[in-house]
Amino acid sequence: MSTFKQEPHKLLLIPGPIEVTDEVLYANAYPPVAHTSADFIPIFGDSIRLTRELLYSSDAQIFLIAGSGTLGWDQVSSNLIEPGEEVLVLNSGYFGDSFSDCLKTYGAKVDEIRADFGAAVSKSDLEKALLAKKYKAVAFTHVDTSTGVLSDAKMVGETVKAISPDSLVILDGVCSVASEEIRMDDWSIDAVISASQKGLGAPPGLSIVAVSQAALKVSATRKTPVTSYYASWKRWLPIMNAYESGKPMYFATPPVNLIRAYHTSLKQITRAAPSLADRFKLHKEASQRVKDAVAELGLKQVPTDPYYAANGMSAVYLPDGLGVADLVPRLAQRDVVITGGLHKDYKDKYFRIGHMGVTAVNPERGDLDKLIAALKDSVREAIASKKLQSRTENKRTTQVRPRPYLRTTSARL
């Protein structure tokens, strides 16, 4: 058992990257090994199996590739969509915009249902769109990190398959996997995109994609060549199959240290207490605790309906008269790191907090206690400072008065 402990640092509570355990960080610092070595092969293969288990899937194909979560968009766009094909994007924020851009880059014809800021796309609007046109795929962001809105993945999957059973359902779960329940098989999800640095509790740098066998067949039988080299599943599928079966194979060097760290986190998530089901429950409890603290301060959440509020993060409107620069640096002075808004139209009006992974499921760390105390102190201090500044400015305005005009006369001698 290692005695490794992380260096003291500010508590990282943004919506990713997140805090990681000592064991995960230590695994990432392990001396590098050959990606074809007997030490690494079982770690890679087991990471594939555990990722599948985390998503409640019996046969999804897992791709673990060096890259950010954004690489997942490129994977599904280049492998599943051929130029000219129709895709429907359910847009609930900044990352819906970006997903659409990526799909268009690979030649997709994209229609969007754009939810109001802070809202998710409704079932009725989705049904209407599906009845009006045939789509190759329906894509949506499960938790849009820019708004903290949680879309109803179960509803989306079931609605699409009921009306348009041949349409693929693509879920961007970069900010939801491991902090929100995703039942890939039961909910008819064909692709789940994620990344290592959020709910999955590992350092950044690993693109994680799960693909249904039906979607994999669509990719294998496409009429035109895959329009990416690095993201091509035709090249990566033999690699993943080889490692899962206990054999090495080479296309591009995998990030051996990062996969070791990811594997360590996966074992903590799926093989240790609390159980996977309990982890989702603990995320909900942590989320409610943060949102209750926000409400006590008189602040309002960005999600317009609590049902659509994410459990791994919170997006909160700033108090009237305050900007991001009035609040975020004050928390940093108290060794707590949060971040400002991201949506282009509202980014200066709200802030965002991440409360996923070890922060949510390991209460003995005291992360939420520290966050809530720092948030309360910082908000009150920022409001008091703004009031003092306003009074000072008003006082200066009233003190600066024009001097009266003095009329003088001179006597003639």
UniProtKB/TrEMBL annotation:
Compositionally biased region (Basic and acidic residues): 387-396
Enzyme's top EC category: transferase
Residue ranges of every copy of the Aminotransferase class V domain listed in the record: 26-343
Pfam families, A to Z: Aminotran_5
UniProt KW Transferase keyword: yes
Required co-factors: pyridoxal 5'-phosphate
Top-level lineage group: Eukaryota
PROSITE patterns: AA_TRANSFER_CLASS_5
Region (Disordered): 387-413
InterPro entries registered for this protein in UniProt: Aminotrans_V_dom, Aminotrans_V_PyrdxlP_BS, PyrdxlP-dep_Trfase, PyrdxlP-dep_Trfase_major, PyrdxlP-dep_Trfase_small, SP_NH2Trfase/AEP_transaminase
E.C. numbers: 2.6.1.44
Keywords carried by this UniProt record: Aminotransferase, Pyridoxal phosphate, Transferase
Family per record: Belongs to the class-V pyridoxal-phosphate-dependent aminotransferase family.
The protein's name in its UniProt record: alanine--glyoxylate transaminase
Organism: Somion occarium
